Amino acid sequence: xxxxxxxxxxxxxxxxxxxxxxxxxxxxxxxxxxxxxxxxxxxxxxxxxxxxxxxxxxxxxxxxxxxxxxxxxxxxxxxxxxxxxxxxxxxxxxxxxxxxxxxxxxxxxxxxxxxxxxxxxxxxxxxxxxxxxxxxxxxxxxxxxxxxxxxxxxxxxxxxxxxxxxxxxxxxxxxxxxxxxxxxxxxxxxxxxxxxxxxxxxxxxxxxxxxxxxxxxxxxxxxxxxxxxxxxxxxxxxxxxxxxxxxxxxxxxxxxxxxxxxxx
Length: 264
Description:
Blueprint: E1 2-5, E2 15-19, H1 23-36, E3 46-51, H2 53-63, E4 70-74, H3 90-96, E5 98-102, E6 105-111, E7 116-121, E8 124-129, E9 135-141, E10 144-152, E11 154-158, H4 166-169, E12 181-187, E13 198-201, E14 206-211, E15 218-222, E16 225-227, E17 230-237, E18 243-247, H5 253-260
Parallel strand pairs: 2-3, 3-4, 4-18
Antiparallel strand pairs: 1-5, 5-18, 6-7, 6-17, 8-11, 8-15, 9-10, 9-14, 11-12, 12-13, 14-17, 15-16
């Protein structure tokens, strides 16, 4: 789930630059810091993240507790969550940027060994088989069993912002930001073979129960947090947390998501 809000700034002077550990991102940070100055996140009005989509996700997680808006510039490969890299007029670009508020998914995982792990995801939460045998997973939505047994390589639940990522590669639907829907998408479903997933309301609470967990071990991944040998995984949208992402007006995230549906 996400919502678009008006640009928050008139002018931005205090910028904190975060950079991926790649040479390109580090060199770009050095040039931008020399030109515009830099400060700590505690002093900043905005954060500029330099890297690819993976580094942008790391930055969004880091900013959850600070409330700072994040403006990404692509120094990576795909850069779906990033703006075009350019060094000129950065304060003006930040002032004119369109703000999109993203809410994460919260994963609560219980393992075979009895551990519990919580993690957040701005893209998706996925369950994946660990060994050669297919996973067996029961799916409940809001306390009601909807799929008694799914045999598959895995399954994922995605945010609208993440619906163009792993979800789309697994043949799940792209969801507009304003749709208030979460795609639930199987990965290589074996039984029922023709099941292609579901669209759930953003208020849904989803429970995945791993059947035959000792024989068919499954891992759960929330963005970049992986939990091995899970037994139960509960997922819901957490609207008590949010992060603001900034995009150039001609590259708004909502437009990118629509445009992605018309690419080959």
